[in-house]
Amino acid sequence: MSALSDPAEHLALALTQGGMQRMTARVLAALLFTEQDTLTAGEIAESLTISSGSVSTALKALVSVGLIEKVPAPGSRREHFRFREGAWATLMSEQNQLVKVMREAAEQGIAVTGRDSAAGRRLAEMRDFYDYLWRELPALIDHWKAHR
Fold it and tell me: Is 98 left (phi over 0), alpha (psi -120 to 50) or beta?
Protein backbone atom coordinates (compact mmCIF):
# COMPACT_ATOMS: atom_id res chain seq x y z
CA MET A 1 0.00 0.00 0.00
CA SER A 2 1.32 3.43 -0.85
CA ALA A 3 0.57 6.95 0.31
CA LEU A 4 -2.98 8.14 -0.18
CA SER A 5 -4.01 9.06 -3.68
CA ASP A 6 -5.06 12.58 -4.56
CA PRO A 7 -8.79 11.66 -4.35
CA ALA A 8 -8.24 10.08 -0.93
CA GLU A 9 -6.35 13.14 0.30
CA HIS A 10 -9.12 15.32 -1.13
CA LEU A 11 -11.70 13.32 0.82
CA ALA A 12 -9.62 13.58 3.98
CA LEU A 13 -9.41 17.35 3.49
CA ALA A 14 -13.19 17.56 3.00
CA LEU A 15 -13.78 15.53 6.17
CA THR A 16 -11.38 17.82 8.05
CA GLN A 17 -13.24 20.88 6.79
CA GLY A 18 -16.41 19.20 8.05
CA GLY A 19 -14.97 19.01 11.57
CA MET A 20 -13.14 15.66 11.70
CA GLN A 21 -9.63 15.62 13.14
CA ARG A 22 -7.02 15.59 10.37
CA MET A 23 -5.37 12.26 11.21
CA THR A 24 -8.73 10.61 11.79
CA ALA A 25 -9.85 11.79 8.36
CA ARG A 26 -6.67 10.46 6.73
CA VAL A 27 -7.04 7.07 8.44
CA LEU A 28 -10.67 6.87 7.36
CA ALA A 29 -9.70 7.71 3.78
CA ALA A 30 -6.99 5.04 3.87
CA LEU A 31 -9.56 2.44 4.92
CA LEU A 32 -12.05 3.61 2.29
CA PHE A 33 -9.57 3.62 -0.58
CA THR A 34 -7.63 0.42 0.14
CA GLU A 35 -8.07 -2.58 -2.11
CA GLN A 36 -7.26 -4.87 0.82
CA ASP A 37 -10.09 -6.35 2.87
CA THR A 38 -8.52 -5.17 6.12
CA LEU A 39 -5.57 -3.11 7.32
CA THR A 40 -3.57 -3.23 10.53
CA ALA A 41 -2.67 -0.10 12.47
CA GLY A 42 0.94 -0.63 11.42
CA GLU A 43 0.04 -0.79 7.75
CA ILE A 44 -1.94 2.42 8.07
CA ALA A 45 0.86 4.20 9.93
CA GLU A 46 3.40 3.10 7.35
CA SER A 47 1.29 4.07 4.36
CA LEU A 48 0.45 7.50 5.75
CA THR A 49 3.88 8.04 7.34
CA ILE A 50 2.30 8.98 10.66
CA SER A 51 2.93 7.80 14.20
CA SER A 52 1.35 4.67 15.60
CA GLY A 53 -0.12 6.82 18.39
CA SER A 54 -1.92 9.00 15.84
CA VAL A 55 -3.29 5.91 14.12
CA SER A 56 -4.40 4.37 17.41
CA THR A 57 -6.26 7.54 18.43
CA ALA A 58 -7.92 7.78 15.01
CA LEU A 59 -8.94 4.12 14.99
CA LYS A 60 -10.53 4.44 18.44
CA ALA A 61 -12.53 7.45 17.30
CA LEU A 62 -13.69 5.73 14.10
CA VAL A 63 -14.68 2.53 15.91
CA SER A 64 -16.59 4.52 18.54
CA VAL A 65 -18.81 6.22 15.94
CA GLY A 66 -19.38 3.00 14.02
CA LEU A 67 -17.57 3.82 10.78
CA ILE A 68 -14.98 1.07 11.08
CA GLU A 69 -14.75 -2.21 12.92
CA LYS A 70 -12.12 -4.60 14.24
CA VAL A 71 -12.23 -7.92 12.47
CA PRO A 72 -10.62 -11.28 13.18
CA ALA A 73 -7.72 -12.21 10.95
CA PRO A 74 -6.93 -15.92 11.21
CA GLY A 75 -3.23 -16.49 11.66
CA SER A 76 -2.48 -12.89 12.62
CA ARG A 77 -1.81 -11.61 16.11
CA ARG A 78 -2.41 -8.01 15.05
CA GLU A 79 -5.77 -6.27 15.11
CA HIS A 80 -7.26 -5.75 11.68
CA PHE A 81 -9.69 -2.99 10.75
CA ARG A 82 -12.08 -2.40 7.91
CA PHE A 83 -14.73 0.07 6.89
CA ARG A 84 -18.09 -1.20 8.17
CA GLU A 85 -20.82 -2.30 5.81
CA GLY A 86 -23.67 0.20 6.16
CA ALA A 87 -21.44 2.57 8.11
CA TRP A 88 -22.91 5.78 6.73
CA ALA A 89 -26.46 4.81 7.71
CA THR A 90 -25.17 3.74 11.14
CA LEU A 91 -23.42 7.08 11.56
CA MET A 92 -26.55 9.00 10.64
CA SER A 93 -28.62 6.84 12.99
CA GLU A 94 -26.22 7.73 15.79
CA GLN A 95 -26.66 11.38 14.83
CA ASN A 96 -30.25 11.11 16.07
CA GLN A 97 -28.90 11.51 19.60
CA LEU A 98 -27.12 14.70 18.55
CA VAL A 99 -30.33 15.93 16.93
CA LYS A 100 -32.18 15.32 20.19
CA VAL A 101 -29.53 17.15 22.23
CA MET A 102 -29.57 20.13 19.88
CA ARG A 103 -33.37 20.30 19.96
CA GLU A 104 -33.38 20.20 23.77
CA ALA A 105 -30.70 22.90 23.94
CA ALA A 106 -32.82 25.14 21.73
CA GLU A 107 -35.89 24.51 23.89
CA GLN A 108 -33.92 25.38 27.04
CA GLY A 109 -32.67 28.55 25.39
CA ILE A 110 -36.21 29.57 24.48
CA ALA A 111 -37.27 29.06 28.10
CA VAL A 112 -34.53 31.43 29.24
CA THR A 113 -34.73 34.10 26.53
CA GLY A 114 -38.49 34.07 26.01
CA ARG A 115 -40.40 33.09 22.88
CA ASP A 116 -40.93 36.65 21.70
CA SER A 117 -37.33 37.81 21.96
CA ALA A 118 -35.01 37.93 18.95
CA ALA A 119 -32.94 35.13 20.49
CA GLY A 120 -36.09 33.15 21.22
CA ARG A 121 -37.18 33.39 17.58
CA ARG A 122 -33.77 32.23 16.35
CA LEU A 123 -33.79 29.38 18.86
CA ALA A 124 -37.33 28.43 17.81
CA GLU A 125 -36.11 28.08 14.23
CA MET A 126 -33.28 25.89 15.49
CA ARG A 127 -35.70 23.77 17.53
CA ASP A 128 -38.07 23.43 14.58
CA PHE A 129 -35.23 22.37 12.29
CA TYR A 130 -34.07 19.67 14.71
CA ASP A 131 -37.67 18.56 15.27
CA TYR A 132 -37.92 18.07 11.53
CA LEU A 133 -34.68 16.07 11.41
CA TRP A 134 -35.79 13.96 14.39
CA ARG A 135 -38.98 13.01 12.55
CA GLU A 136 -37.54 12.54 9.06
CA LEU A 137 -34.07 11.06 9.50
CA PRO A 138 -35.10 7.53 10.60
CA ALA A 139 -37.52 7.16 7.67
CA LEU A 140 -34.92 8.51 5.26
CA ILE A 141 -32.35 5.97 6.46
CA ASP A 142 -34.91 3.16 6.21
CA HIS A 143 -35.81 4.28 2.69
CA TRP A 144 -32.16 4.29 1.66
CA LYS A 145 -31.62 0.80 3.11
CA ALA A 146 -34.71 -0.53 1.31
CA HIS A 147 -33.53 0.80 -2.05
CA ARG A 148 -29.98 -0.35 -1.69
Answer: alpha
- Among 32, 62, 83, residue at a domain's last position: 83
Residues 63 and 110 in one domain: no
Tell me, yes or no, whether 71 and 29 share the same domain. Answer: yes
CA distance 83 to 62: 9
Q: Which long-range contacts (CB under 8 A, 24 or more apart) does 90-97 make?
A: 90/66, 91/65, 91/66, 91/67, 92/137, 92/141, 93/137, 93/138, 93/141, 94/65, 94/66, 95/137, 96/134, 96/137, 96/138
pLDDT digits (tens, 9 = 90+) for 71-127: 988 888 899 999 998 888 877 777 777 888 899 999 999 999 999 999 999 999 999
Q: Tell me the CA distances in angstroms from 41 to 10, 19, 120, one per residue in order.
A: 22, 23, 48
Among candidate residues 83, 111, 129, the one where a domain is terminated: 83
Q: What is the mean pLDDT of the chain?
A: 90
**Which residues span the domain enclosing 13?**
6-83
In angstroms, rounded to a whole number, what is the distance separating the alpha carbons of residues 27 and 45?
9
